[in-house]
Write a structure and sequence with these properties.
Layout lengths: L1 H49 L2 E11 L2 E12 L2 H15 L25 H18 L11 E11 L3 E11 L6 E10 L8 H4 L2 H19 L17 H4 L4 E2 L4 E4 L14 E4 L1 H4 L5 H6 L4
Parallel strand pairs: 2-3
Antiparallel strand pairs: 1-2, 3-4, 4-5, 6-7, 7-8
Length: 295
């Protein structure tokens, strides 16, 4: 019996290297699988932004002294959750001028066309309607006195594997000393198409700390030529984020936009500044750091 036990022990010991080799092979295969899976995921994530494409449409129409000008980068391919969201936001903004004419429900006039549809006929239709609406509104004055105009540019400014950013600029004039300008941006989360908000990027305390930073960079960049003390905002420094438009992610940093009259008189324009990511990283949420590739 003792000899049998010794024989079994020797047999077990002789099998140990084989078992260890199999274990090593199994672990190696698991590591290789993990590396390949990660690489594929990164490749797909990278291509998610690379597949995103836009087509630029330029429409310029005139009627008498009235003008209608549109330049828009409109998505034509990419991940559906992303492009569906961007297409909807861009399309709604394209025809927002109707709200100035008292028609707040633009959906009654314009419907988002299927993916791949040429926007040119629709933009030209909108331009002709713009002229018609103005002629009807000011029918009691000579047509040559109507110099109303509408200009808008919607530009793709950043594409990464995590976010896509657009800038919206426009100007609507319907008489008087000056028209109504606007400038803002939107950044979209590539994974689900949602618009990125301040709360997505910063912790509650981070938002508080961000206010004096915005104040500093506005004065250093946008108001760089102004004498110290000449710039006085209408809101408190601690409220700047509340009056800002949506945050805009770019390759250079976080861009902050303020619309006309948001923090000062029309004369100061539409203040904007860009804050480098390395200055604000420690105040960002984990999600915000991931979006901007910060550690």
């Amino acid at each position: 019996l003792q000899l049998k036990r010794i024989a079994l022990l020797k047999n077990s010991l002789s099998q140990a290297p084989l078992v260890m080799n199999k274990l090593r092979v199994t672990i190696a295969l698991l590591l290789i699988t993990l590396c390949v899976t990660t690489a594929v995921a990164q490749f797909l994530n990278f291509n998610q932004s690379q597949d995103f494409k836009v087509k630029t449409y330029n429409t310029q129409l005139s009627h008498g002294d009235m003008t209608y000008e549109i330049s828009v980068d409109f998505p034509i391919s990419g991940p559906r959750p992303l492009i569906d969201s961007i297409r909807t936001h861009v399309f709604d903004e394209l025809f927002d001028y109707e709200s100035f004419s008292g028609n707040d429900d633009t959906s009654m006039t314009y419907k988002l066309p299927p993916l791949g549809t040429d926007l040119t006929p629709l933009l030209e239709k909108a331009g002709r309607k713009f002229f018609q609406d103005n002629l009807e509104t000011y029918s009691d004055v000579p047509e040559y006195t109507i110099r109303n105009s509408y200009q808008q540019e919607i530009k793709l400014i950043a594409v990464t594997s995590n976010y896509v950013s657009f800038k919206f600029d426009g100007y609507y004039y319907c008489g008087g000393a000056h028209g109504f300008p606007w400038e803002f941006g939107l950044s979209f989360n590539c994974s689900n198409g949602k618009v990125i908000t301040w709360e997505d990027l910063f912790t509650p305390n981070g938002l508080k700390i961000l206010n004096p930073m915005i104040d500093y960079y506005l004065r250093a960049q946008y108001f760089a030529d102004e004498e110290e003390g000449d710039v006085d905002f209408w809101c408190k420094q601690s409220e700047l984020v509340d009056y800002a438009s949506f945050p805009v992610l770019t390759s250079k940093g976080l861009t902050v936009h303020f619309s006309a009259y948001a923090i000062g008189p029309y004369a100061i324009g539409m203040p904007t500044c860009t804050i480098p990511y390395n200055v604000i990283t420690e105040f960002m949420t984990p999600f915000g750091k991931k979006l901007t590739h910060q550690k």
